[in-house]
Amino acid sequence: MQNILLNIDTATIDWSRAQFALTAIYHWLFVPLTLGLAVIMGIAETCYYRTKKHFWKEVAKFWQKLFGVNFAMGVATGIILEFEFGTNWSNYSWFVGDIFGAPLAIEGILAFFMESTFVAVMYFGWKKVSPGFHLASTWLTGLGATISAWWILVANAWMQYPVGCEFNPDTMRHEMVDFFAVAFSPFAVGKFCHTVISAWIIGAVFVVAVSSWYLMKKREQKLAVESIKIASIVGLIASLGAAFTGHISGQQVAKVQPMKLAAMEALYNGGTEQGLTAVAWVNPFRQPDYANEQAAPLKIDMPYALSIMATNDPKGYVPGINDLLNGYTLPDGTSEPSVEEKMERGRLAIQTLADYRKAKAEGASKEELSPLLATLSANMPYFGYGYIRDRSEVVPYVPVNFWAFRIMVGAGCLFILFFAVLVITSFRIPYVTIITRRLLASLGLIHESHADTVGADALPVWHYWLAIALVPLSYIASESGWLVAEFGRQPWTIQDMLPTWAAVSDLNSGSVAITFFLFLILFTTMLAVEINILLKQIKKGPSA
Amino acid sequence: MTYEFLQQYWWFIVSLLGALLVFLLFVQGANSCMRSLGWTEEGKRLVINSTGRKWEFTFTTLVTFGGAFFASFPLFYSTSFGGAYWLWMIILFTFVLQAVSYEFQNKLGNFLGPRTFQFFLVLNGLLGPLLLGGAVATFFEGSNFIIEKNNLVDATALTPIISRWGNASHGLDALLNPWVLVFGLAVVFLSRVLGILYVMNNVADEDIRSRGSVRLLGAAIPFVILFVAYLVHLLLKDGYAVDPATGVIFLEPMKYVHNLLDMWYLDILLLLGVGLVLFGIGKTAISPNYVGGIWPAGIGTVLTVLALFLVAGWNNTAYYPSTADLQSSLTLANSCSSEFTLRTMFYVSFLVPFVLAYIVYCWRKIDAKKLDKEEILTDHAY
Fold first, then answer.
1. A332 SS3 class
2. Are A159 and A493 in contact (CB under 8 A)?
3. CB contact under 8 A, B75 and A98
4. At what angle do helices B114-141 and B41-52 cross, to 10 degrees?
5. Is B337 within 8 Å of chain A by CB?
6. Does residue B9 belong to the interface with chain A, where contact is any CB pair within 8 Å?
7. Which of A121, A387, A529 is the closest to B362 by Cβ?
8. How far apart are CA A107 and CA A183, in angstroms?
9. Do B108 and A123 touch (CB under 8 A)?
10. 84-123 in B: which are within 8 Å (CB) of A?
C-alpha cells in the first residue's frame, strides 16, 4: 500500500483540496445572504399582502433586488461544487457515490427547480400573477434554497458521520442500505439547523447594516426603521438558535469526531472534569508539539465546561489528541484502540479485500470466501486507516480549528448581545425598553435626549457604524464555522473510511493548479462586481 | 421490479434529462445570435431578457442531469468527470460566466461594462452546446480511459485510483475526432434554430420576428446537413456491444442499426422527433405569421435526443465506450448504483411529474403576455 500511495502526486491532492476549499468558501459567501434575505423579504411581502400598503411592497421589492444580485453568484459557484466531486475526487465518487449521489440528485429535483421556477415569478410576476400567488412564490424561492441546503448538508453530514451503508467487496464500494438513516441522520439534522439558522444571522446583519446607513444619511427612514424591526427579531431568534444548535453540534462532534473536538480545543491530554478553553496561546502558523506539551501555553479555561458541553456531565471524560493517538479506556471500562492498532487493522482489511477479490476471480467457493468476508467485516470500520502512513496524519491542523472555533463562538455571543439591545431599543417593551435606554444614556452610549425615545432611528451614530462593521464579522464567523467543520475532519474525506489521498482523481497537479487560479480570478472579479453593484443599488435606494 | 429493470429505468430518466437539457439549450442558441437577432441595443436587450427568464431552467437541468448521473451511474461520474477534466471544466466555466451575466450586465456599478457580459453570453452560447454535444458524441465514439477497481487494494498497482485517463489531454482529445466535432457543431446549430424559434415566439416585436425568419434557414441548413451526416455515420459504424451473460464487451458491426431494429419503438420516436423539428423549421420559414415553431421543434428535439440516448445505452450496449481498453467500457450493469439506491431513487423520481407540472403552470403564467419593449422599460428587467 505504501508503494502505490507514493505514486500519487501530493501536489495534486493539495491543489484539489485548495480548489474545493476555494469554491466552497466563495459559495458560502453568497448562500447565507440568500437564505437570510429570503426570510426578511418574505416577511416584508407578507406585511404587504396583509396590509395592502404600498410601502411594504417597496420594502419587499428593495430587498428582492439585492437578493437577485447575490443569488446569481450562489448558483454559479454551486454548480462547480457539485461537479468537483467528480472532476477532482473521482475515487471518492465511485467509492461512496452509491450513497452520496442520491442527496445531490434529490436536491436537483426538489430544490433547484423550485428555486429557479419561483424566483422568475418573484421578479417578473408582479403584474402577471395574483398577490397571493406572488407571495407564495417569494416564500417558495426561499423554501427552495432551504431545501437545497437540507440535501447538501445531508451529504456533508454523511461524510462526517457515515451511516446507513455497508461495504460491498464485489463492487468495491460502500452501498446504501437505509435511506432514512442517511436522510435523517441526527448529524444532518443538527448541521442543517445550525447552518441555516446561522445564515439568517448574516441576512439580518446585512439588513440592519444597510438600514443603519440610511439612518445615518437620514434617507429612507421609514424603510430603514421597519426593516431593522424585522431584522432585529430574525437576528435575535437566529443568534439564540445558532447558540443552541451549536451546542447540539458540539455534542455530536464529541461523540463521532473526538479528534476534531480535541483540535478545536487544543486539548492535547484529556480526562474527566475538563474545562473549556477561554484563551490560550496556540501559534496560528505551526502545528503545536502536542506529543510533548501538557497543554497549550497561557491556557485559561472555564472549569467543567468542556465536559458538560461534550457529555452533559461535569465529570464526563473528554479525550485529548494524545489519548486518541495512544488509545484510551473510558471510566465505564470501554476502550478505544490506538491509531497504530487501527492502522494495522485497516491494512488487514485492505489485504483481506485483495485476497477476497483474487480468490473470487479464481473461482473460489462460498465456503472458501466466508472466512475472508468475516475478517473483512471485522476490520472494515478501520479500512481508511490502512491508507494512513504515519499516526500524525490523523491529527488535523490544530491552529485553524482552535482559532476558527473561537472566532465563531465569540462572534456568535456578540450577535446575541447586539440583536438583544436592538430589539429592546427598537420596540416598545414595557419597562425594559426605557430602563435599558436610560442605562445606555447613563453610560454615555446614547444621547440623553434619546433616553426616553423609542426606535432604531434614535440611536447614536456609533451604533450604525457598529452594525456596518458586523457585516464582515458575520461572514468571518460563518466561514469560520465551515473551517472548523472541514479542517477538523482532515485527513478524511469520509470519516475513518477514505483519506484525501485515496479519494483524489488521476490528474497532474499543473492542470488543477491552472483551474484553481482560473476560478480564483473569476470568482474574485465577480465578487468585486457584485459588491460594487450592491453598493450602488443601496446608494440609489428603493427607487433604483 | 428487477435490478435490470431499474438500470434501464434510470438510463431512461438520465436520457430524458439529457434530452430536456439539449432542448433548453435554446437559451444558449438565442444568446449566440443575439446580435443578428436583436440588431439594435434595444433589440439585443429584448433577446437577453427573453432568454433571461429561462436560463435557470437550463442551468438547473444541467445540475440535475449531473446529479442523476451521479446517483444512478456513479462510475460514469467518476470516470468521465475525473478523466475528461478539461472538457468538463471548460463547460462549467462558460456556464458560470453565463449565470452572472444576466443579473450583472445592465446594473449600475458593473465596472466591467455590459459588453463584457454580453460577450460571456455569446461565449457560453457557442462553447456550451459545442462541448456538451461533443461530450454526448463520446457516448458513441468512445473515450480514452482505463478502469481497474483492484487498484484500490493492489499493492503492485501504479496508483490506487480506479479510473485513469489514457492521455494527458484529459478530455480535449475528444475534439480531435472529426465526428465528435460534427455532432458538437450539429448541437450548436440546433441550439441556434431553437433559440431563434423561441425568441420569435416569446418576444412581441415585428423587427425581431422578421429577422428571425430570415436567420432561421442560416442555422437550420447547416444543422440538417451535420445531423444527417452524423446519423449516417452512426448507423454505419461499429458499436460497442456487451454480452449480458458474461459482461464481456465487443465490437459489433452496425450495432446501432441493430439497436434500432431491435427496439422498433425508438425508430418511431426518432422519426417523429426529426419530423417535428423539420415541421417547426419548415412552417416558420414558409408562414410569415407563424411563431409557434418552438413547440414542435422543441418536442421533436426532446424525442430525437431521447431516442439517441436510449440507442446508446439500451439493448446490451456499452454507453460509454473506452477506446483504450474495451473491457473498461461502461455499461448500465457495470456502472450503476446498487439495487437499493436505484429503487429508492425510483420512488423519488415520482416527484418529477409534479415538478414538471408547476414549472409548466408558472411558465404559462409568466409567458401569457409576450415580452415587449414597454415591459423592459417599466418592469423588472436585465
1. coil
2. yes
3. no
4. 50
5. yes
6. no
7. A121
8. 12
9. no
10. 85-86, 88-89, 92-93, 95-97, 99-100, 102-104, 107-112
CB of B358 less than 8 A from some CB of A: yes
Q: What is the CA radius of gyration of chain B?
A: 21
- Return the pLDDT at A7: 58
The backbone torsions φ and ψ at residue B322, rounded to the nearest 5 degrees and listed phi first, read -105, 125
- Where do the structural domains in chain A lie, given as residue ranges? 2-255+400-487+489-540, 263-336, 339-392
From chain A, pick out residues whose CB is under 8 angstroms from the CB of B158.
4, 7
Per-residue cell: A480: 469560520
pLDDT value of position A3: 53
**Placement of cell 465569540 in the chain:** A410
Question: Cell numbers of B101, please?
Answer: 451575466
What is d(CA A71, CA B108) in angstroms, rounded to the nearest whole number?
17
Contacts 24+ apart (CB under 8 A), A292-298: A293/A268, A294/A268, A294/A269, A295/A266, A295/A267, A295/A268, A295/A269, A296/A266, A296/A268, A296/A402
Which residues of B fall within a CB distance of 8 Å from A532? 109-111
CB contacts of B111 in chain A (<8 Å) are 528-529, 532
Helix (H, G, I), strand (E, B) or coil at A47: helix
Contact call for residues A301 and A275 (beta carbons, < 8 A): yes
**Contact assessment for residue B149 and residue B162, using Cβ atoms and an 8 Å cutoff:** yes
Question: CA gyration radius for chain A?
Answer: 26
Q: Could you give the ipTM of this predicted complex?
A: 0.91
- Residue spans of the domains in chain B: they are 3-232+319-378
Cell of B125: 452560447
Q: Which residue has 463492487 as its cell numbers? A: A171
Nearest beta carbon to residue A80 from set B71, B96, B351 = B96
**Before A491, cis peptide (omega within 30)?**
yes
How many CB atoms lie under 10 A from the CB of residue B145? 26
Supply B74's cell numbers. Answer: 456513479
Q: 10 Å Cβ neighbour count for A540? A: 12
Task: Report whether A477 contacts A411 (CB < 8 A).
Answer: yes
Yes or no: say if A169 and A181 are a contact pair by the CB < 8 Å rule: no
Gap between the terminal Cα atoms of chain B: 48
How far is the C-alpha of A243 from the C-alpha of A488, rounded, in Å?
Answer: 19
Assign B288 a pLDDT band (cuts: 50, 70, 90). confident
Mean pLDDT of B239-266: 95
Record: contact A97-B74, CB cut-off 8 A: yes
The model's pLDDT over A40-58, given as tens digits with 9 standing for 90+, comes to: 999 999 999 999 999 999 9
From the centroid of its chain, how far is CA A207?
A: 21
Shortest Cα distance from B142 to chain A (angstroms)?
Answer: 18
A116 and B56 within 8 Å at the Cβ level: the answer is yes
DSSP helix/strand/coil, B250 = strand
Residue A190: all three cell numbers together:
443538527
* Integer Cα distance of A104 and A398 in angstroms: 31
Q: Answer yes or no: are the C-beta atoms of B91 and B21 closer than 8 Å.
A: no
pLDDT band at B155 (very low <50, low <70, confident <90, very high): low
Backbone angles phi, psi at A234, to 5 degrees: -60, -45
Q: Is the pLDDT of residue A198 over 80?
A: yes
Handedness of CA A241, A242, A248, A252 (dihedral sign): positive
Q: What angle do CA B132, B133, B136 make, to 5 degrees?
A: 90
Out of B99, B358, B363, the one facing A75 most closely (by C-beta) is B99
Q: What is the mean pLDDT of residues B335-357?
A: 93
The total of other beta-carbon atoms located within 10 Å of residue B361's CB is 13
Residues facing B320 on adjacent strands: B330
Q: Which of B94, B58, B78 is nearest to B320 (CA)?
A: B78
pTM: 0.92
b/e per residue A12-30 (b: at least 16 CB within 10 A): bbbbbbebbebbbebbbbb
